[in-house]
Amino acid sequence: MFTPTLFDIPRNLSFLIGAVDADRSLLGIDTLSENAATIIIVLIALGILGWGYYRAVPFGKLGILAWLQSVSLMTPWLLFFGLFGVGIYLNLAGILLMLVASTGLYIYLGKKLRAAGEDALLRSRAEKMVTSADTPPDVSNPEPAKTEVKIALTEQPELVPIPPEDLKAIQGIFGIDTFFATETIPFQDGVICKGNLRGDPELVYGRMSASLQERLGDRYRLFLVENTDDRPVAIILPSKNDPQQTTISQKILSVALMAATVATSLETGGLLLGFDFFSEPMRYPEALPIAVGILVILIAHEIGHQVLAKRHNVRFSWPFFIPTWQIASFGAVNRFESVLPNRKVLFDVAIAGPAAGGIVSLAMLIGGFLLSHKGSLFQIPADFFKGSVLVGTLARVVLGDALQQPIVDVHPLVVIGWLGLVITAINLMPAGQLDGGRIVQAIYGRQIAGRATFATFAVLAIASLVNPLALYWAVVILIVQRNLERPSLNELSEPDDARAALGLLALFLMIATLLPLTPALAGRLGIGS
Question: What is the distance between the terminal CA atoms of the chain, rounded to a whole angstrom?
Fold first, then answer.
């Protein structure tokens, strides 16, 4: 089957063809056969499910139920695209039936999970009561613990930069029922306290943090993190080490990049309509509607971030957009201007942007399909819809047999929505401080996030051998976004299973947006010639 390239399409769509061809090269499967591609997709899906099961087993029944909830949300999509792989096409009613069944199963498993959690909590409390009854008096008394910490801290007072009166106040937040401190080590201008965590991390952190604030106000920050030996440690640092707020010069840069993004959005609209905006700026009214559509998606993405950040009382910086003439913008770079309380907040703020931008893009895409008719503004080769599993599938569901024609007339919203989905998918790549990287860090922790970042770099490096766009994006990540997000105050508490399932769904849709249909499979589905 023939796949269109940059030189096979009229000039007004050449930049978009380049962007989607970049997606194909990015994943490197243009030359794979249909069967090989299907096997790879199945293996990836099984790998994700297997890894989730491996992480769930140590938690017993609770872990398995949480894993099954994730499976219930992922199964409809995996089944849908898996059936595509063997040539079975489901209509819209079948898709909705699977989604309803999946949602019902998710709710049922959630009830089971809550019931099992309550049983586990009662057993845990009973075991603690029995243990405390059998504990020798000298251990159950919290005073020796405080004395031990005091001795450890006063052996080398010159190495501890915290004032003695602050140090004494800090030692008072530890106790036998929260965090039993056994060793204290000077760390920068704070201290690291090793010991044993006594209770749920979220409850323990809340009590210790409240005690610290009551004694020393807002002068210090308490972090609960995992040590290199996978044991919890408490780190106390001065609040002067908090992230700095955006400076005036940085805000000026943000405004300048926003203005540049407006210009590249107009250029994108002009290229779609067959003219160069920078050469003919007086024709801006023609490109303005398309530029506004793209900017609406970008702004919705940033509003999503800001709304959730404000809801969780954390500061999020102004956006620093990355303009490009190919698809108007690659999104924006943001940073947190306050310490995050926990990984749940990191997840919520990170996913809010792609969720808002993705929903707006998807609504534009579907609305554009519904508004498309013979004589619509843009004429796109049907083979072009092979460039994305998600877009091609939606086009087949809505447009039906129209995709069997060589040329398909589409509404401008189709092109704008597609661009928005590509921008959203790029930002969901699991690397560094991209939204996808933050999501992976929030769900799986810093170690897995670091490995995912390295894997993303490897994929982009390989793809850059055949496509310069991948090299450009790899350089952007390497220079601006390569580092992981700094640890949250309570790094031990993981997001709940609903957030984990939502994060997996977002990453899955990212792959579905960038993953192209193989020519043979697209032909079997009736897409293109």
Answer: 8
Furthest CA-CA distance within the chain: 86
pLDDT in tens, 449-500: 888 888 888 777 777 776 666 666 677 666 666 678 888 888 888 888 888 8
Token readout for 403 is: 């995709």
The predicted model scores a pTM of 0.70
Print burial letters for 265-299: b (CB count within 10 Å at least 16), e (below 16).
bbbbbbbbbebebeeeeebeebbeebbebbbbbbb
Tens-digit pLDDT profile for residues 61-100? 777 877 787 777 667 766 766 666 566 666 555 666 676 6
Of 16-20, 165-169, 315-319, the range with the lowest mean pLDDT is 16-20
Pairing of strands 320-324, 232-238: unpaired
Q: Distances in Å between the alpha carbon of 433 and those of 261, 350, 408, 523?
A: 21, 9, 39, 39
Q: What's the gap between Cα 312 and its chain centre? A: 17
**2 burial type by CB count under 10 A (0-12 exposed, 13-18 middle, 19+ buried):** exposed
User: How is 58-71 classified by DSSP, letter by letter?
Assistant: GGHHHHHHHHHHHH
Rounded CA-CA distance 158/478 in Å is: 40
Burial readout 162-173 (b: 16 or more C-beta within 10 A, e: otherwise): beeebbebbbeb
Residues in the chain: 529
Query: What are phi and psi for residue 432, nearest 5 degrees?
Result: 50, -130
In one-letter notation, the amino acid at residue 283 is: R
